[in-house]
Amino acid sequence: MEAGRQENQDDVTRFWREEREDGAVYSAYLKKVTYRSQAQLEDEHEREFSHLMWETQKIRVIKAGTLEKLVESLSTVRGELDSTYVNIFLATYRTFATPQQVLKLLIDRYQMLKLCCEDDRTELNELQLKTIKSVISVWLDTYPEDFREPPNYPCLHTLEKFSLHFLPDSDLAGRARHRIERLTKDHSGADANEIEFRFSICEEVDHMIDNEYHKPLTFNDISSHTFAQQLTHRDAELFRKVVPHHCLGAVWARRGKKGGKEAASVLATIEQFNRVSLRVIATILKTRDHKTSQRAKIVQKWIHIAQELRELKNFSSLKAIISGLQSHPVYRLRRTWSSLPKDTMVLFEELSEIFSGENNQLNSRELLMKEATAKFPDLDSQNKTLKRRNMQKRQSWIDNGIVQGTVPYLGTFLTDLTMIDTANPDMTEEGLINFEKHRKEFEVLAQLKLLQSAAQIYNFKEDTQFWIWFDSVRVYNDNESHELSCAIEPPMEGSAKIKKKSASLGHKPAKFDSSKFGLFACGLEDRSSLSSIPDTITASLAGPLMSHSSSTSSVISSDSDTSSSPYRSCDTYVIRVSLEPSDQASTHIYKSIMLCNTDHTNTVIQKVLEKYSLEGQPEDYCLLQILPDGGELLIPERSNVFYALNSSIDLKFVVRTRAEHETLTLRRKGKRRGKKLSL
Asked: Is 397 among the domain residues?
């Protein structure tokens, strides 16, 4: 905006009208401004003429436009630098343009204005030239990764050549040359600034142990406090390195189109989240030979670690632990949970409530905004013992001057940005870039950058021995987790019968691809990227990990009803879908699918085909919800499944080919017609 944010409509700024010109749409505002100095306004002799000291100026804010018009708007009609608009543009332009395109347009505009200055030298043109130079300088300093294009660095070479010819008196050419030399040197080895974290969930990195021997740690050797500090150290480090514009829905959620490297900083944070959740599950399930009381102590310790993370305001690993504890293989262990002390269960419920999906995660959002820049958390509890303990800790922090940083759950921001990307078109009906969409995205990115500053406060040192233990933990895929859980607490008799019947039909569980990593993903518009997401962890960006009724390739157990799985997000469901073969009327094998409130029919069908490792076009299949009376609800081809389904009944679906469905429909109609004739 040329003189303040669009939303700033105070007593002297009023919306006037919408204005259109070739290639752009603007919102026009009228603003009352003074053209007298403050000293003149305060002068008693001037007060009687105060009504003459103000004028009304028209301010235009671009709503949509071609790329050329958006670049042109980086300077105001008066040629000044519009810092707000420049910040929004530079933070979001990658979703509709490349650095090369933007740099070329800036240089072309500078050259055009320069020629105009030579023919008719005006103060406005001089100011616009100065503004373009400032924009390029700010861009180079604020987003250096845009110019990191090994091995040739075309943008930096273009900038150097332009600066030498048109800006010989500036330092831009020298800065560009210095950047080229440094990046070329770094590229020959490992670029220290490149964020490439390549953790592997199922193939852990081997660690070289120091010459001095250290006895390997066990889970019980590590205190809850140390555990929380180390997770926070890693989470804060990763979060600080997140490149905000990598979080844009059009960048990270569609990463499959360009190989996934654009959002490396986001994927590193997501993968660490999954690493924590998987270790929660693994440490609990590998206790097959333990007594229930021993296993309950492990669960209890994870809850205490979660509380320590809450005190450190680390909402990322806190949610990861809660998600692991709420995962089906762990949550179904009724005997284990019933062995926990009452205080521990109260604590678990309170920690879980933070990430309740109600009202779009209202609890976690309000808590994050309340404590984002606070010195320490505002802890409370319904349990008197916990409440008294929290009050004592708070007083201790005040007395000792302890200040805590903040690490948010990144999924909240990814959800918001993905929803903005999904709900707002990239282009207007006139074919112009919808810049209002990018203003909304920038508001989320600004909150993210504020929290990155808060994450700088932590001052923990890395404990090598802890991470050697952490990386050595054997984690399990969905099939293994389900089998281990059932070995600890066998399913009820009803589910055993279902399993036996399914086995007799010859159904086999899907194989797990260990080369792929789990991702807490939902709301992705480009579903082609979902082929890289196995069944390791299916957690919603917008809410806690659903306690779905089976591992995705396992038989649905009757002991996993909805009453024992209360964790359902307000904008996601976990639905169970079977793929009906042509030679069977039905099947008891279901695979769990994460359904988001943006998913349409073909999107869901594509996910089902990928789950069953089948090739085919979604258009050749249909999706039906199974009704309690044995009937079926056909989901229309182009409908939003989230809103088309009947949510008051079990979310069980079947996918069959359209040809099979038409044949089955005709057969059923024939049977009904035959019954009528017999009557």
From this structure: yes
Return d(Cα 229, Cα 236) in angstroms, integer. Answer: 10
Q: Are residues 250 and 330 in the same domain?
A: yes
Domain that holds residue 640: 516-671
What are 28-34's contacts with CB under 8 Å, separation 24+? Answer: 28/58, 28/59, 28/60, 28/61, 29/58, 29/59, 29/60, 29/61, 30/56, 30/57, 30/58, 30/59, 31/3, 31/56, 31/57, 31/58, 31/59, 32/56, 33/57
Same domain, 136 and 242: no
Here the tokens at position 41 are: 């306004």
Distance CA(277)–CA(272), nearest Å, equals 9
* 608/559 same-domain check: yes
pTM: 0.67
User: Is the same domain home to 463 and 341?
Assistant: yes
Q: Same domain, yes or no, for 422 and 564?
A: no
Q: Return the bridge partners of 624, or none.
A: 634, 654
Q: Which residue has the tokens 């070739």?
A: 22
* Secondary structure (3-state) at 141: helix
Strand partners, 575: 593
Q: What is the pLDDT of residues 576-619, one digit of tens each?
A: 888 876 444 334 467 777 788 788 899 999 888 887 878 889 99
**From the CB of residue 447, how many other CB atoms can be counted at a distance below 10 Å?**
18
Both tokens of residue 407?
């690490």
In the chain, % helix, strand, coil (3-state, to 5) comes to 55, 10, 35
What is the three-class DSSP state of 207?
A: coil
CA angle 639, 642, 648 (to 5 degrees): 120
Query: What tens digit of pLDDT does each residue of 425-468 get?
Result: 899 989 999 999 999 999 999 999 989 988 888 889 999 999 99
Q: Is residue 415 part of a domain?
A: yes
Would you say residue 214 lies in a domain?
no
Check which CATH number belongs to the domain holding 612 and give it. 3.10.20.90
Co-location of 462 and 540 in the same domain: no
Question: Using an 8 Å Cβ cutoff, are 417 and 399 in contact?
Answer: no
- Among 472, 494, 526, give the residue marking a domain's end: 472
What is the side-by-side order of every strand in the sheet holding 433-434? 13-21, 24-34, 54-65, 433-434
The domain boundary residue, chosen from 472, 505, 529: 472
> Helix, strand or coil for residue 652?
strand
What CATH number is associated with residue 88? 1.20.870.10
According to DSSP, the residues that pair with 210 across neighbouring strands are none
Question: CB within 8 A of 56, min separation 6: which ones?
Answer: 30, 31, 32, 33
Q: Are residues 140 and 232 in the same domain?
A: no
Strand 433-434 with 24-34, pairing? unpaired
